[in-house]
Request: fold
Amino acid sequence: MTNTKHDFSQGSVKRLVLAQALPLTLAQAVQLLYNIVDRIYIGHMEEVGDIALTGLGITFPVIVLIAAFTVLFGTGGTTLFSLARGRGDADEAENILGNVFALLCISSVVLFVFCYCLRRPILFLFGASEDSFFYADEYLKIYLFGTFFSMISTGLNGYINAQGFPRIGMVTTIIGAIINIILDPIFIFTFDMGVAGAALATIISQAVSAIWVLHFLTGKHAILRLKKEKIRISLSRMKRIVSLGLPGFVMQGTNSLVSIVCNNQLQLYGGDLYVGIMTVINSVREMISLPVLGISQGAQPVLGYNYGAGKNDRVKEGIRFTAILGTVYTLLAWGIVMLIPKQLIAIFSSKAETIAIGAEMLNVYFFGFVFMAFQFAGQSTFQALGKAKQAIFFSLLRKALIVVPLTLLLPAIGFGATGVYLAEPISNAIGGLLCFFTMYFTVYRKL
Reply:
């Protein structure tokens, strides 16, 4: 616990944030390959690539819903875990870890049963057409069998990073992604399994990642371990875990809500083609957003540790660095997207119509992307310092209170399918600025 290598109250704050953020970003980039590689291979399937990709997009809200519960317990516990480490309370930190593991196990079983039994009405509710349902169902009914592995590998990996082992955490996703990349073409093309093969490759790779995480957290190299006697649910700890995990849960949950509304509106105003394009654009957004997301998430254990240790000057320095670095990156990323939109869409489809319309919609969707840096900086600060109410509010504000109404309104007043894509940049500007400046005046200036 006293090893200065893992003591975030010592040394350069900038260096500590980068030491956490860079491996975390790389790990998340590799983890993203789980879904991105699936979409690339499926999008280039002969004859049925575009409609199969549309079907895959319909399953996105279900996958995000599973991720939301992973974040609810995993991220909420990580914040408490970091605060306990900062206070030097190893026993409480291990109790939190055991509590989170139990919650992830139980919720994974409940989610699997619910989503598997009701997948047909769920997929049609989420925007499936008669043509796209076949591919959506073929993928989802296999993918759901990996719910436990997905939640364990993702939900517990943060406890490796929070102990100062970001490189070990990075290996978690690298192992899984490499396996997925190897198995995808074998199952999809060689075994001619199509969409089902992509799902099977994903759950096998997630299983290996989960085994790796559990092996490390129960082994001798971890500073704080997952112990059998600590695996139990304490209602008082669960309440604190859930309260701090709610911002991330709301953000993921509202992502699912937005995806459902978008798919239905696009189906109404544009059809399967536009639903498939949104699937591609979401993939591009996930790739482009990774570094700024990694920066903000990498800063959280550093901010939380120093806040728990009473080092407010270091907390302020971390907030400043995170905001500036995120702003610079998002400006550069925005410029790149504007320069090569067709090339980015072509990664996922070879159909000329999809590339042409997709490039146009990509430029609309990414307009003002820089404002996302403000959202991430404000959101991560609230969460790292345990300001759950503020973090929840701004998660809800941007997605549920701005994006969803605009997604319903803009197409109806004459923008058509384009209005669905236009809702995103408007919400980024309004929500991002409000989140950041509220954090600045209510938290930063008072530290």
About this structure: The two ends are 26 Å apart (CA to CA).
